[in-house]
Amino acid sequence: MGTRSGRDARGPVAALLTAALLSLACAGGGLAEPEGERPAPARSPGSPEPTTTRADGTTSVAEFKQDVADAQTIAERYWAAQFKESGQRFQPIRRITPYQRAGEVSCGGEPLPRNNAVYCSRGDFIAYDVAWSVAAFRQVGDAFVFYLLGHEYAHGIQVRLGINYSFTIQQELQADCMAGAYLGDSVRAKALTLADGDLDEFREGLAAVGDDPDQPWFAEGSHGTAQQRTDSFFRGYERSLEACDLG
Question: How far is residue 112's CA from residue 51's CA, in Å, rounded to a whole number?
Fold first, then answer.
């Protein structure tokens, strides 16, 4: 990786990988399949070329789908490079699944609700309500799609590294930081070029998904206030994974 942790010369990802991957392999036998879904066809490893997010007023579903595909490919390349740096093989998240109705997709037997995006560790997949996600894309902008995918992908990386906090908010704010690192590092590596206004879109999106200020931080499902989520995201964006307390 471009930055190194002072605690481990191999970097924060490498410090956790060996034991975490062993424990993941032991837990892999009970993975659940998302209902009604088949594995997505393999994408060409040469696609896409360095991507520019399109803060240009286009709001078609085709643009949304392309942004999701680009964000997935860039996230996979990014995390594969981090794992390779530490001498370990990276296993991408198995699939990304859009859904349209509450209960259409289940995670560990629990139906997923509307207006949500989630990483399901039981099946190692990301699922999102496509109507809600497209609405956010149209209201906030395309940069939000890259953040949303990056945040949920970060939860998959947490599983691969064996990270498990006592409180939901700790897990969520770290995922925000990791999403920021994936995006900031990809911009610095010229794998992603931000258009004018994209940084503001990140801020607007984070403000939109922040918890109510009155929600207790220790409550199950807490993600953090808008300010906490923004701070965590931009800490990762500016300082890379070293800022995300991975090890």
Answer: 31
